[in-house]
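Chapter summary example: a protein plus zinc ion.
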Amino acid sequence: MTEELRLLKEKHIKYIEALDKKQDSYEYWLTEHLRLNGVYWGLTALCLMDAENTFDKTQVIDFVLKCYVEATGGFAPFPRHDAHLLTTLSAIQILKTYDSLDILSPDQVKKCIEFVRGNQLEDGSFQGDKFGEIDIRFVYTALSTLSILESLTPEVVEPAVKFILRCYNFDGGFGLCPGAESHAAWAFTSLGALAIVDRLGDLTDEQLNEIGWWLCERQVPEGGLNGRPGKLPDVCYSWWVLASLALINKLEWIDYEKLREYILRCQDEKKGGISDRPDNEVDVFHTLFGIAGLSLMGFEDLKPIDPVYCMPPSVTKTIRKYPYE
Ligand SMILES: [Zn+2]
């Protein structure tokens, strides 16, 4: 590999900008169920590239408000859809990034908090919505949302922490529920959730070392990271694995240069954007997580990213830390 690889920042900005203007296309409607998440991924990637003004703030906020579901208090991926925890977090992240949470009325905020809390189950876990799909992602999603809204309480936090610790496996990974196979995405959501409520200290040094080993073994010879043993590498694990390592102060256990090269090889040199693997179709999800990974490693002159919240530290530094004084 002798060619000089670099981040094609201008092309990625154009790629994300174009997504915002594709409202008439088939592709746009096809991904309707992801729309609000997509706006968050795009906006955060733009922030990292110091181009957050690429989106029209007023239009984005207007769209977020249209996704608010009066009946339940959560946010849907798209107007007139059902609310879900994942898109509720995206809505709150977007408003927080724009320093515009106060556009919600006190009553809307109150109902939103109730929506999140109302999805917690007896064992401390959360369901994503009334259809009852459960996994540890939703614990992270719920705690992150409540944290940004500064409304965490011990009644929510204590059972959630217990549930997360039950998802820890002896191989050093975390499963999506107690006893399930370890997966890098669950490592991030577990560690991120514990970090949000200042409970990483509930893990012993020995466990943290095991976790570090399990995570750094995700790097494959071609430089990319996989989600679990024996699987192909994928750019989004540049976030799940690297952010996890950052949270337990073991980021340097990864070979930065090789991972950087892998991420840059997944860029579409013509239209911009980053894919999961070299030569695959790009999407905004992998574009964000590729860029976020490069930012965590300090490459390409990018803005920093907070490994706990996946938002710029300039935004998250204003979130009140739990436990509240
Ligand atoms: Zn992926």
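Key point: The pocket of zinc ion is lined by residues 234, 236, 276, 286 (CB under 6 Å).
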